[in-house]
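Exercise 3.2. Students should predict the tertiary structure of the chain below and write it as structure tokens, then compare their answer with the key that follows.

Predict this chain's 3D structure.
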Amino acid sequence: MKWDNYIDNLVERLQVWNKGAIVPGYDPNAWRRDDWFKLISFDAYGDRSSQYGWEIDHIVAISIGGADVLENKRPLHWRKNASLGGYLSAAKKNSLGATSTSDAINTENCWARTEVTSGKSSALQPPQTVSNLWAQFR
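Answer key:
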């Protein structure tokens, strides 16, 4: 039974890892970037003493109705994951008027990238539309 658990956890970790951004010039099996552009190392999973440590984050916290499914998970640097603590996802979901978990999932990365690209450390502002947001990256 212990091996079954280990295999299940490893499969989940690999599936979530593959959702991280590939970093050009780095081995994608060892290095990725999270949604907040932090460099993470596959071998540093769960290591809060590593500057490259990461954890599996629920995009929409389970405590506010998020599902424990792959679509609601992402690799996230441990410091960012610890700082979010479900609060940011709850605030975003409520302010966006998301009516379902999938609505909040579809907008989550838009918010994160808006803050990173604008360089603002204050409260996040929602993009007018997703197409307007993507226009910033072209």
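Discussion points: The mean pLDDT is 75. The first helix runs from residue 2 to 17.
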